[in-house]
From TrEMBL:
Similarity comment: family membership: Belongs to the glutamate 5-kinase family.
PANTHER family: GLUTAMATE 5-KINASE, ISOPENTENYL PHOSPHATE KINASE
Gene: proB
Residues that coordinate or bind substrate: 57, 144, 156
Domain Aspartate/glutamate/uridylate kinase: 11-242
Subcellular location: Cytoplasm
Pfam family membership, one: AA_kinase
GO cellular component, one term: cytosol
Protein name (database record): Glutamate 5-kinase
Key word Endoplasmic reticulum present: no
Reactions the enzyme catalyzes: L-glutamate + ATP = L-glutamyl 5-phosphate + ADP
Gene3D superfamilies to which the protein is assigned, alphabetical: Acetylglutamate kinase-like
Length: 285
């Protein structure tokens, strides 16, 4: 398989950071120094002339901690209330950190409706393109407070891949709390072996990817593989890497062998709607 030298030339990059990477494992509180480094690296990519989108999870995790809720909430209304509190807190921190580098961020909250509805999807796409022209870094999350079981993406891995396809990005980086894809969940199976790169996603790889076994993560590796299918079919390369040290973004962009690399596999007939489950809305499509 081809090396990763070509990653140096990527022009439009979507970077997703998970809740587990944005919060301290022991306390659940925001990891400020990590966010600070992340913001500096994203601004520097922008300074190199690249278009950058950050898909940031963490609203529920940060809101839960702010409200003093110690267990992982299961009730939807509690999760949505946590998201409402956490999203604004997250954005306050991002805003402050980006301001230090004179970089303007923007917030884009999306739901499946945004994607299913032709006008909303086009509006979102136009907004992204306008923001790129303006040199702004959009920060995306699911609009958790208005989603329902039927219309939620539920995980930001899928959302980030959909955004990658929507804006024709050429690289998606998923930062997680693990080095990449293993043959099994290494937290459950000590024999699991690291996979360096994937040229073609098939059932073998899908079978390896299990759910999350951490307290704050959603979706685990399973949703990251679904994301890889969407991103690579849309024509983007994808890397799953450990967000413990966010400098890893620079290493990936320099073409170094970090994380698991998924080679783009452009489907000339790619249609975004084919990748968004609309089964719950027989009247809407
Ligand atoms: N095959 C696998 N390889 C690596 N990690 C796996 C695998 N299957 C399940 N996982 C789990 O997925 C987790 C990462 O997903 P998740 O907890 O949702 O994090 P994030 O918040 O970064 O999205 C890992 O910590 C690991 O426990
Ligand atoms: N939209 C939710 C995050 C959902 C999600 O995918 O979480 P994660 O597995 O931490 O990336 C939030 O902001 O809390």
């Amino acid at each position: 398989m081809a090396g990763r030298e070509h990653l140096k030339n990527k022009k439009r990059i979507v970077i997703k950071i998970g809740s587990s990477s944005l919060t301290h494992q022991e306390t659940g509180k925001i990891n400020l120094s990590k966010m600070e480094k992340l913001v500096r690296i994203l601004t520097d990519l922008r300074n190199q002339g690249k278009d950058v989108i950050l898909v940031s999870s963490g609203a529920i995790a940060v809101g839960k901690e702010t409200l003093g809720i110690s267990n992982r909430p299961t009730e939807k209304s509690v999760k949505q209330a946590c998201a409402a509190v956490g999203q604004t807190r997250l954005m306050m921190v991002y805003q402050k950190l980006f301001a230090e580098y004179n970089q303007v961020p923007a917030q884009i909250l999306m739901t499946k409706y945004t994607m299913i509805n032709d006008i909303s999807r086009e509006n979102a796409q136009n907004t992204f393109h306008e923001l790129f022209e303006m040199g702004v870094i959009p920060i995306v999350n699911e609009n958790d407070t208005v989603t329902t079981d039927e219309i939620e993406f539920g995980d930001n891995d899928t959302l980030s891949a959909i955004v990658t396809a929507l804006v024709n990005a050429d690289l998606l980086i998923l930062l997680s709390d693990i080095d990449g894809l293993y043959t099994d969940d290494p937290r459950q199976n000590a024999e699991a072996v690291f996979i360096d790169s994937v040229e073609h996603i098939d059932e073998k790889f899908e079978g390896m990817a299990k759910d999350s076994s951490t307290l704050v993560g959603t979706g685990g590796m399973a949703t990251k593989i679904s994301a890889a299918k969407i991103a690579t079919a849309s024509g983007a390369d994808m890397v799953i890497a450990n967000g413990e040290e966010v400098d890893i973004i620079n290493s990936i962009m320099a073409g170094e062998k970090k994380g698991t690399f998924f080679l783009e596999n452009k489907n000339e007939n790619f249609k975004l709607l084919d990748y968004i489950s609309t089964r719950q809305y027989p009247n809407k499509v």
